[in-house]
Design brief:
alpha+beta; single chain; two-stranded antiparallel ribbon; 50% helix
Amino acid sequence: MATQGAFTEIASLAGDPARAGMLHALLDGRALTASELAQAAHVTPQTASGHLTKLAAGGLIAVEKQGRHRYHRLASPAVARMLESIMQVAADARPRAIVTGPRDKALRAARTCYDHLAGHLGVALADSMIANNQIELTLDAGIVTEGGATLFDRLGIALEPRKSGRSKRILCRPCLDWSERRPHIGGALGAALCAHCLTSGWIRRVSGSRAVSVTTKGRQKFREYFGVDT
């Protein structure tokens, strides 16, 4: 029954409103300070400290020290996938009469899912690469074809799996998109593509949100390389 106990512990940790707010704030893949997370969760710094201690002890977040500061991030891509799955279930259970606001529309259009692209943009890129036989996705795995290797070489994206802890991170995998209900690209490849889009100025982060906006350059490049109009 140890597994059931661990499940109960994780569910309790993620289910608290303040801690859920902190975890949601970390879903864009960046590391944040306790003060930033306290603001995101609408709690005092003292209260935030207690919540962060519990999240770290439960293995949901990792803490890194840099000089005098301590930064918090999600412990692994698996935690991000768990949170996205919960959001998908919550969206399915939500009454259909609710009308989303502009912020929700921005998140649905394009956002980061931990360290890779999600929303309509992320799914459109996956659809394009599948249609052009550049990647192949099953329910729980993915491969990059020779055509895909050529594309990513043109983009300057290395296809070597990234190391995560003691093991190598999976190169390519599907990640079910909670708003589109179809897969976008996760794994090391998804992370590398997202990083490339950010550093190349194709997309920009939207302050205070996981949403990203596509730049004029990005619209040109997404059309040129993927045939995707944004």
